Amino acid sequence: MKGSKSLYWKLSAYFFFFFFTWSASYSLFSIWLGQEIKLNGSETGLIFSVNAIFALFIQPLYGYISDKIGLKKNILFFISLLLVFVGPFYIFIYGPLLQYNVFLGAVVGGLYLGVAFWLVSELSNLTLKRLVVSISLSTENQECGAR
After folding, report:
1. What is the rounded average pLDDT of the residues 9-27?
2. 46 neighbors 102 (Cβ within 8 angstroms)
3. CB neighbour class for 144 (10 Å; exposed up to 12, middle 13-18, buried from 19)
4. How far is CA 35 from CA 14, 28, 54, 88, in A?
5. Do 51 and 106 contact (CB within 8 A), yes or no?
6. Which of 66, 105, 129, 145 could tie 98 with a disulfide, CB 3.0–4.6 Å?
7. Dist CA 124 CA 93 (whole Å)
8. How far apart are CA 66 and CA 144, in angstroms?
9. Based on the number of CB atoms within 10 Å of its own CB, is 96 exposed (0-12), middle (13-18) or buried (19 or more)?
10. Residue 84 to residue 124: CA distance in whole angstroms
């Protein structure tokens, strides 16, 4: 039981930081595009549209990964690694690429952000569900063995 409490707090912290990163990133995204990258409203709309399109196309990839490849125990490490590089991606790749070519930057950004946020969100939820089921089954087995 003590191990499941520790796992609960670790997963809670992980999900807090994941959704905090996601919401902080997207709430300031249009401001960053307008003030820092100097894009107009139609270019900002193009970027949001391309991001949404990639989010739709990431879903079949998610289905393939979960059905064919399966999830390993180190999936949270991979997810965390993707999220750690979101900041450097914005600063060193996405921003300069958007200033050079808006459409190319939108495609590259849509691909990375689609994988880093939308796919990671789905894989994280699936991983959490599997962990919760395994914890509840092991707790149930322990309670049955104690009777």
Report:
1. 81
2. yes
3. exposed
4. 31, 11, 24, 18
5. yes
6. 105
7. 26
8. 32
9. exposed
10. 15
Q: Is the pLDDT of residue 68 over 80?
A: no
Categorize the per-residue pLDDT at 131 as very low, low, confident or very high, splitting at 50, 70 and 90: confident
For residue 115, pLDDT over 70 is answered with yes
Percent of the chain, pLDDT > 90?
A: 25
Structure tokens at 114: 């689609």
DSSP state of 40: -
Length of the chain: 147
> Can you read off the two tokens belonging to residue 7?
């796992």
End-to-end Cα spacing for the chain? 16
Instruction: Look at the block and give the residue holding tokens 């569900």.
Output: 129
Q: Residue 43: is its pLDDT beyond 60? A: yes
Q: For 40-59, what is the mean pLDDT?
A: 88
**127: which residues sit within 8 A by CB, 6+ positions away?**
71, 75, 76
pLDDT of residue 142: 59
CA 96 – CA 102 distance, rounded (Å): 10
